[in-house]
Amino acid sequence: MRTESATVTGTVSGNTVGAPSTGNSGGTIGIGPDAKGSGTETLAITKNNLCQYNARAGISFSDYLGSPAMNLTITGNAIADPGKSGDWASRLGPAAVGGGGN
Hints:
This protein is mainly β.
């Protein structure tokens, strides 16, 4: 999900991404919200089952290109069994660490 100057509010809940016995079936990233520009994104990411993501992380989020705001609540997710190139359970993108940028 990407925002440029909009306000987005929502919930990502109850999803199953990937199958434990099927290699790399979870795609590159299980759940990957990001924001750019001057948008505001408020999301609750809860009770999802993520596995076999093949790169980055089960949940990877970042903000970039301006000064977007991200308000995330991430709780109760099961993140396990990464794919061949899966790295982390969750990953905070470089811009999100410093709050905007790029």
